[in-house]
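Write out this protein's structure.
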Amino acid sequence: MTDFNTYRFGFVGLGLIGGSIARAIRKAFPKAVIIAFNPSADSLREAIADGVVNSGRSSDEVPVGHPFAGQDFADCDIIFLCAPVQKNAENLKELKPYLTEHAIVTDIGSTKRDIHAHVRELSLSSYFIGGHPMTGSERTRYRNSKASLLENAYYILTPEPEAGDERTQVMTELVKSLRALPIVVPCEKHDYTVAAISHVPHVISAALVNLVQDSDSEDHLMKLLAAGGFKDITRISSSSPVMWEQICLTNGDNIVSLLDDYIASLTDIRDRIREKEGDPIFTFFDRARNYREGFNETGRGSIQPLYTIRVDIADRPASLAEVVTLLAVNAISIKNVGITHNREYAEGVLQVEFYMDKDREKAIEILTLRGFHVYH
């Protein structure tokens, strides 16, 4: 087993994901050395004050003409590139002269072929193992990072063949030690897979929201009633448009190919509905239901899970306060709470969302014991 307490880790970028990985390393390996570069001095100071990072520099301390001080990372065993996807190529060039023979370079981008192409152009294949921790939050920046963000999340590793089995094994061990679930695949397979399960769904979600917006009446009735099922299947449209622009530009061919297949499927079911062909319509929904019910509900994938419950409460002012107070006195953090007016596809009038599944489970136990009817 690798002793990561003796390792020196480097982070180029210390936002939500980079910060969460750094926190998880510090928690698992308190003696490890962690250095960082981050454009914002405030986030870097926070990380040092937290004891997560040992030392680092921000943009105002970097030599003129350089994206960061590459020499700061000269003795690092593992370096995480945590900048936006299209910035990491520039960062690779800065790192190249300072990499030691045993170093591992990895990234956290949600598309992989683009960064692998830059790695090959720079003759850095023997160092590089791509990484994609399939986790996140609608919140950004280091201050919202937490070690638990990685727990039970799939962490895809896409090693360059020249990196070898030893480096791949080291990264696999590290990911496991951070309580994430490593999966090793070629970068091409990664990009096609996430295009299907994440990128295309985000495009479709945005298209559905825009469809409703463009079709709505002047009194905004569609917007008023857009709760329940519609709100759930389109919640991912709240993601960063800047990030999704970069994803579409770096994985466009896979997205276009799968969108073509999706459009063909929509065209087919549209024709079946128009012709009132009952059996094919039934099969369309039945196949989807059967496949969906076989999904693994324990590991976190590219589209983040909702840790929610719905609760039946009486129509009186004290009911909402009673639920919230019960959870608060039991130290359960609530992410969001709201009244569901459209319950066509959802049971329970009160919806409560949590940050962690363990909070959700504890809330179910407490509210059930107090006589509330909880749906989950």
